[in-house]
Amino acid sequence: MAREPGVWLSSPARVRELSRAWRARGERIAFVPTMGYLHDGHLSLVERAARSAKRVVVSVFVNPLQFEARADLASYPRDLAGDRRLLGQARVDAVFAPSAAAFYRPANVTRVAVTGIGERLEGAYRPGHFTGVATVVTKLLHVVEPDQLWLGQKDAQQVALLTRMVEDLDLAVDVRVGPTVREADGLAMSSRNARLTVRERAQAPLLFAALQAGRASLLARGAGPLARRVLAAERAMRAVIARAPLARLDYARLVDAKTFDAPGPGTRAGLLVVAARFPSARLIDNLKVSLGPAR
Predict the structure, then answer these.
(1) Which of 33, 86, 101, 174 is the most exposed, fewest CB within 10 Å of its CB?
(2) What pLDDT digit, counting tens, does each position of 45-78 carry?
(3) Is 123 part of a structural domain of the chain?
(4) Does residue 184 belong to any structural domain of this protein?
(5) Does the global pTM surpass 0.85?
């Protein structure tokens, strides 16, 4: 059967009905959750999803549960017309774009929380954020019932948290992760980049430069004790961010890529993570590193 031309739906029941009809025909479904204001990073996930499954569903929903401040929710960038245009050109079968009132029943009280991962770094700086993320993704998975859930590496802590949630709750979905998509100067693509002023945008690539400096430090000190290598890498990242006068550093850390704990002797997959606040937007980025045995 030919691919349907990106039907837009707001009813959870209609999305579930469509998904079950595809599954009844043996067609695999890939799902890409987004909050809209789409960019090439989102579209790269859609492309990967289209190569891996017969059907692709994308959600466009600014989730109020993951915003601590009403002002941040209100100012989150939106461009539904642009999203429609971009998704109309992509290989998408259905777009689920509900209203908050339709998706969350009045006085809803049920939340999904992932302890540990959800309380560190971003979880500490944005209280309640990851509970909102876990809750909305759980609801979306129950609506779409996909075979695959596609996430972006740029939001690495969110990837780790949702992967753990899927494992712990035995959800029947395969988590797939697409690489971070960057601008030519290294800045990770993000909907929040649109908020940056000209001066802020000029300094924002220092986040990626900081990650590269941290990785270089680890490689240069590969034969030293892990604790010393970690401290040196974090120092190197902070030094680079200090060159951005408009940025206020929240953290520059090296963590275990799965748990977001401090790396220990058994850690092999590490992650350099950085978050900085500019006057107009808060940005995050990360870079994978190997912490294998010293040679």
Answers:
(1) 101
(2) 999 999 999 999 999 999 999 998 888 899 899 9
(3) yes
(4) no
(5) yes
